[in-house]
């Protein structure tokens, strides 16, 4: 992988920076954006001149396909600043590949690697003052693509816009997370788009998640839609279960997003000699393990929340509380991961890429 | 139902009409829009002043939730001009109710009936010169709502835009339609959003539909995602099957859109004394009926295509051709329906509403 600067980008700088107006100690996740954005349009069958320009609203026709037929995909990744002010990306090749996998599934054009990588690189260079160092601080990076072609007929657009926007974030503290295991609602179908980071997958979860929130749960753990017996993933996280000293996580599938954090934690667990099984995990075995005291931990993994411990889960109106233990595997893996991301520890895996 | 004019709309007229530049004999479906659009924003927990203004692109922030999380719903309906230049809507209450059902499922605010109906009414009044009379001609009406609130965090927006745009259309001729029965891909999950007219449902179908197109089929008939044994619906149409003299169509469910044309055809079939069964229809019985010669017709129903006869279907690489028969039930029902819509026949059902 190579974060190239080879792609020629037309750059228009903003006249004044908004940075002084930002309270970096009190950032609400994903709500503040840097001075610039990267943009590249696709039309007449090809990608046009990429540009970097001041972050600003842009014009769209009311009949744009993204509004009517939901052709929209995105990625979520982070950049970190080390002690000597260098900026590092974490496994950007994985996000790039997944972005194009999503593009194919949503009948959208793939973005060339040079455009994706040089856009990322040069945008971060330009807004590097916005990347703060220190534990928990990161630049959340949001590459996304939308269908801009007009016409209210349900077929793929011929025009698209690929953009990258940047949002500085601090560590994501969500309080105690209790989850509801889905018994009726679902996020993905067999043969559907669950494995794509498609916009439509997220809105689909809001209503059932609101119901869970009202019942006192912060998240839903989705199950397979046909039988609701297999534990799949949370809203924006993959999930791990620890029974005795074995970590369990579902294999990725057409219904489950192939999370970068998930695959990283799998590699870290292996290198830490933690037992790990990648296999379908049943709701029934979770309940049994909770009852007989062998269920030790549940945690989610994702770019935004990193590793998020879960305090308990509910299924069929029964709440199962997890034991409060010290020295959790969740914390062990999280510390390993963030040390590598923040360049506090040698990256023997080659995951970090300097821009 | 009442197409009220009670809601006060702020109207800004366009200075020049685009109508003279339009070739009404050669309209490509959903590609031409009238001079004006209706718009109403939702913010601070309430709907704001509705406006009608010239059709034009509008500004959105790059972080708008519609781009990232797919909160977007729509409706599709038609208006018709009768012999004396009056304009009629067809069952607008059904579209209104379905729109708000979609809104609830996508965690979006419901649109008040006065706003929906007076928007529709006054917009059509203003652009009435664009509604052409004569068989097949209609004004396709596209109400839609998108999440406009900014922020790259996966939760519901607090701001929305509801719009109505109008596109004059002629009869929809799609040529001979051969369909592929889905064996792997799916459009909806149990407990998912298949029953909502959510933007994300459509983009999900583009890739498998492209594959079908390449194999020589114009449409896919979706099956249930768990077993692929039950016939559900086509891309933007519900489906009917005629075996001997009985019409069959699947019951609507969480996976299937409750089509207005479908329910209308059901009522028309009853009033024409056609046998009709609303029950799950199996792929296996379709194949058996095709083999033993009892399968007479398959047709799709939807606002855009009205009634669309299907020439044959493929399943597991075998193509089953339908008999070419005259006096089809499809044609009988289509003629009944369009006569009522175009006010050529008495509407004893009370489906047509004058604006
Ligand atoms: C549905 C879903 N599952 C899992 C994840 C975790 O993936 P990653 O670790 O690549 O961030 C995400 C998102 O970021 C997601 O949206
Ligand atoms: C998925 C789907 N099924 C069926 C239909 C038919 O519904 P209606 O008859 O209300 O147009 C439509 C759309 O218009 C649709 O989008």
Automatic annotation (TrEMBL), chains A, B:
Source organism: Flavobacterium micromati
Similarity annotation: Belongs to the class-IV pyridoxal-phosphate-dependent aminotransferase family.
Catalytic reactions of this protein: L-isoleucine + 2-oxoglutarate = (S)-3-methyl-2-oxopentanoate + L-glutamate; L-valine + 2-oxoglutarate = 3-methyl-2-oxobutanoate + L-glutamate; L-leucine + 2-oxoglutarate = 4-methyl-2-oxopentanoate + L-glutamate
Biological process, per Gene Ontology: amino acid biosynthetic process; branched-chain amino acid biosynthetic process
Requisite cofactors: pyridoxal 5'-phosphate
Domain of life: Bacteria
UniProt keywords, alphabetically: Amino-acid biosynthesis, Aminotransferase, Branched-chain amino acid biosynthesis, Pyridoxal phosphate, Transferase
Entry annotated with the keyword Amino-acid biosynthesis: yes
Key word Transferase present: yes
Enzyme class: transferase
Name of the protein described by the UniProt record: Branched-chain-amino-acid aminotransferase
PROSITE patterns per record: AA_TRANSFER_CLASS_4
E.C. no: 2.6.1.42
Modified residues (N6-(pyridoxal phosphate)lysine): 197
GO molecular function, one term: L-isoleucine-2-oxoglutarate transaminase activity
């Amino acid at each position: 992988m190579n974060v190239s600067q080879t792609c020629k980008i037309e750059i228009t700088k903003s006249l004044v920076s908004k940075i002084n107006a930002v309270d970096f100690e009190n950032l609400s996740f994903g709500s503040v954006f840097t001075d610039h954005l990267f943009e590249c349009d696709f039309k007449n069958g090809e990608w046009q001149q990429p540009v970097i320009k001041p972050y600003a609203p842009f014009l769209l026709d009311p009949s744009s396909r993204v509004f009517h037929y939901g052709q929209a995909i995105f990625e979520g990744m982070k950049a970190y600043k080390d002690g000597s002010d260098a900026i590092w990306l974490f496994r950007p090749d994985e996000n790039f590949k997944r972005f194009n996998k999503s593009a194919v599934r949503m009948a959208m054009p793939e973005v060339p690697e040079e455009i994706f990588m040089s856009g990322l690189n040069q945008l971060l260079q330009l807004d590097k003052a916005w990347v703060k160092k220190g534990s928990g601080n990161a630049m959340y990076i949001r590459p996304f693509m939308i269908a801009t072609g007009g016409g209210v007929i349900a077929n793929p657009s011929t025009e698209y816009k690929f953009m990258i926007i940047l949002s500085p974030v601090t560590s994501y503290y969500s309080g105690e997370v209790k989850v509801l295991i889905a018994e009726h609602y679902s996020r993905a179908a067999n043969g559907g788009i669950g494995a794509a980071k498609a916009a439509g997958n997220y809105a689909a979860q809001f209503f059932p998640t609101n119901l869970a929130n009202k019942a006192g749960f912060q998240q839903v753990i989705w199950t397979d839609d046909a039988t609701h017996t297999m534990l799949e993933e949370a809203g924006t996280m993959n999930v791990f279960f620890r029974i005795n000293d074995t970590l369990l996580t579902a294999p990725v599938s057409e219904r489950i997003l192939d999370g970068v954090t998930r695959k990283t934690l799998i590699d870290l667990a292996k290198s830490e000699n933690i037992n790990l099984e990648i296999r379908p995990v049943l709701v029934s075995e979770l309940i049994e393990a909770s009852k007989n005291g062998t269920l030790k931990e549940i945690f989610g993994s994702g770019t935004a929340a990193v590793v998020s411990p879960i305090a308990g889960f509910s299924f069929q109106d029964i709440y199962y509380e997890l034991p409060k233990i010290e020295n959790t595997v969740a914390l062990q893996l999280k510390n390993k991961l963030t040390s590598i991301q923040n360049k506090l520890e040698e990256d023997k895996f080659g995951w970090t890429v300097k821009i």
